[in-house]
Design brief:
This protein is α/β, with parallel strands linked by helices and 304 residues long. The chain has 13 helices and 14 strands. It has one domain: Rossmann fold (3-Layer(aba) Sandwich), CATH 3.40.50. Helix 1 packs across helix 11. The longest helix has 19 residues.
Length: 304
C-alpha cells in the first residue's frame, strides 16, 4: 500500500472519530446531545456498566436496550459504555425514518447497537435482519438480540455481504474491531493506532440470498469498511423489489480503494437503480455526483 493511501486511511480514522465524538465542534455536540437525550432518555438508564470478564461488559443504552460489548474495542465501546449512545446523527435519522411494522436491514451490524434500536422502532410487527462478518462481533450481536428478547423478529447472520457466494479473508482487528475489513491498512497504520490484526476466513454471500422471502425492505443501513460496492452488487434484486427503500451507507473512497474497488463504480451502480444521494452530515441536503466523489468521508442517504 502506498504512503498516500496509508495517510488517507489514517486521516479517515481520525475524521470518523471526530465526527462521531463531535471534536470538530464540541460545544455544538454537547448541546445536540443534551437536546437529544430529552427524547432518547429511558427510565432504565443508567445502570452499569458491569464487567463480566473475558473482555466483555454489560451496558445500557439511553433508549433502553441492554448490550454486551468488547472492552478491548477503542472505537465504539467507550462511547456506549460511558454515554449510552453511538453516532447520534445516525441514531436520530433512524428514529425519524423507521416506522412500526417496517423491514430494516443492518449490514455491518457490529454488536447490534443499530440492530436493537431498529428492532425497538419497527416493533414485533416488523422484521430486522442483521449481518456481521467479524466472528466475535457476530457472536455478541446474536447474544444481544437474545438478551433483549427480540429473537422472534430479528435474524442475525455471521456472513460477509458480497457480490457472490464465496469466502473472503478478513483483516480482523483487535482494538478497532468494527474497522475490520477485507482491505488492509498496513502495518504502519496499525502501529500508529496501537492495533493488531489476524487473518480469518469468512463465508461471504449476496444479501439478496439472505433477504429472499422478506417483504420489500424499507430501510437499510450499511457500514462495512470499504466493501460497499461488493455488497450492493449482491443486492440488486432487493433494490428492485423495494421501490420505497431508504439506504444509509458509509462513504469512504479510501477504504473502497483498499478493498480494490472504485467509488465511481458504486455511484454508477446506485444511480442505475434510480437512487439519488443526500449527505447526512449536511442536514440531508442533496449532493451531486462530482461533489460526492470529492468527499473523503460521510454518511450518505440514498432513495428514489
Amino acid at each position: 500500500m502506498s504512503g498516500v493511501v496509508r495517510h488517507r486511511l489514517l486521516s479517515l480514522v481520525a475524521a470518523r472519530a471526530r465526527r462521531s465524538l463531535g471534536m470538530d465542534d464540541v460545544s455544538q455536540r454537547l448541546g445536540d446531545i443534551e437536546a437529544g437525550l430529552a427524547q432518547l432518555r429511558s427510565d432504565r438508564y443508567p445502570h452499569g456498566p458491569l464487567y463480566f470478564g473475558d473482555h466483555t461488559a454489560l451496558v445500557a443504552t439511553r433508549w433502553g436496550a441492554k448490550m454486551l460489548v468488547d472492552t478491548r474495542d477503542a472505537a465504539i465501546s467507550p462511547w456506549i459504555v460511558l454515554d449510552g449512545l453511538w453516532e447520534t446523527h445516525v441514531t436520530a435519522w433512524l428514529q425519524q425514518t423507521l416506522q412500526p411494522g417496517q423491514v430494516f436491514v443492518d449490514v455491518g451490524a457490529n454488536v447490534g447497537y443499530f440492530t436493537l434500536l431498529g428492532a425497538q422502532l419497527v416493533g414485533p410487527g416488523g422484521r430486522v435482519v442483521a449481518v456481521e462478518a467479524h466472528p466475535g462481533l457476530a457472536e455478541l450481536l446474536r447474544r444481544n438480540v437474545i438478551m433483549n428478547g427480540l429473537y422472534g423478529y430479528v435474524t442475525t447472520w455471521h456472513r460477509a455481504a458480497w457480490s457472490s457466494t464465496t469466502s473472503v479473508q478478513l483483516h480482523q482487528r483487535l482494538n478497532f474491531s468494527g474497522a475490520s475489513s477485507v482491505g488492509a491498512i498496513g502495518s504502519e497504520a496499525l502501529g500508529r493506532l496501537g492495533d493488531s490484526e489476524e487473518m480469518v476466513e469468512v463465508q461471504a454471500v449476496p444479501l439478496d440470498d439472505l433477504l429472499e422471502g422478506l417483504p420489500p425492505v424499507d430501510v437499510l443501513k450499511m457500514d462495512i469498511e470499504g466493501a460497499e460496492l461488493q455488497a450492493f452488487a449482491g443486492l440488486s434484486r432487493t433494490l428492485e423489489a423495494s421501490p420505497k427503500i431508504s439506504v444509509m451507507f458509509e462513504w469512504a473512497p479510501a477504504l473502497m480503494e483498499a478493498v480494490g474497488d472504485k467509488a465511481d463504480a458504486l455511484v454508477d451502480l446506485l444511480e442505475g437503480h434510480g437512487l439519488h444521494f443526500r449527505l447526512l452530515e449536511d442536514g440531508l441536503s442533496p449532493i451531486e455526483r462530482a461533489k460526492l466523489l470529492d468527499l473523503p468521508y460521510g454518511n450518505v442517504v440514498a432513495a428514489r
